[in-house]
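Posting for a labmate who doesn't have an account.
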Amino acid sequence: MEAEIRYVRSGGVAIAYEVLGDGDVDLVYVRDYVSNLVYAWEIPLFRDFYERLARSFRLILFDKRGTGLSDHGPQFAALETRMEDLRAVLDAAGAERPVVLAAQEGCNIAALFAAAYPERTRALALFHPTAKGPGASDRATQEELGELRERWGTREFSDELLREAGPTLFASEEHRRWFANWLRVGATPAAAYALNRAWFETDLRDALPAVRVPTLVLYRATPVGEEEALDVAALIPSAQALCLSGEDYFALELSPEAADELERFVAGEGPPAVPESVLATLMFTDLAGSTERAAALGDRAWRDLLAQHNLLVRRELARYRGEERDTAGDGFFATFDGPARAVRAAFAILDALAGIGLAARIGIHVGECELHEDKLAGIALAIGARIAAAAEAGEVLVSGTVRDLVAGSGLAFDARGARALKGVPGEWQLYAARREARSG
């Protein structure tokens, strides 16, 4: 039943995918960590699972950026980059509103996609998701990641992984052999390091409540993964949690009932609803010292300068795929499909304005917004505007949610401490985005 492998370009990077079956409902499977579309068919466990899914769904499989048959490309481990790759695969496969099934690390991409694009997601199924990685700053974690990079793909290392997280697989010499090869053909040591580091640093706790599509969280009663999965289910409104048979953290395919449960879950859902909310990246800009500058220049000269300002801001929004939502006086409100792109757009705006002698304050936040006739509303907008107001001239200030979602993007931040934002309950941890080092 193996299908022809095709490629789609996403930001100039080739992403490998294949489509199996002809069911009425599309289902895309975002695999855990690494994959290889060719080698997967050599593994009976995977082949049988794919064929079972393809009897009920039109199944879409792909190798994520940096793994298997797909290119690496810049920032290949960044969540928003991989989310764009998923959208490109769905467009190429003609899947308008698929069920998104994901496992382990792939759950981060799937959950963020469902929150950001509810109109493209019929339902979401997550196997052993994690809301927050353990972090990568402490010495023990850095040593663990360093060991992974040095030992990745060796039989000894793969056996250790299986012994802890896949005891059923570990009991078979054949399974141990193919698991070691699966790691080798799935990712290089450097890629595996980057992917795991990004996973360690990602925190989705603020984003998961914005998932509003029907969601099924699958897990096994194991020491590894059960508690984390139930935490995710508690964060997603109306999510269902289902315990599968087995004792392994790895390999959703080991639970023979998984495909049947997924089919029942999808069949029990009503017709797709129009989304009432969406997870969005919000940018607010405001010129610093504009009142004094306008008074010094006079009305006509200030209008001319402001017109240049508007042209430059709109130029950079277009370059970074930002969508202008509103403008008032000397400020802009725009949205982006990812926080890393918004941060880079912000620095481009600051540089462009500096060329005409202007300085701006820019605030960026990621939050759930209500949809009212294609217009955004909700407290997330107030938070974004208040963050911009708290920024210094020439500074890009972001919320902790932004920082938590850009792992693997190469961006860095300096803590600015907890701030009270006018009209917004509680205190908010804010961070100043650091300019990326330029080569040459």
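Reply:
Got it, the structure tokens are right above this. The chain is about 40% helix and 25% strand.
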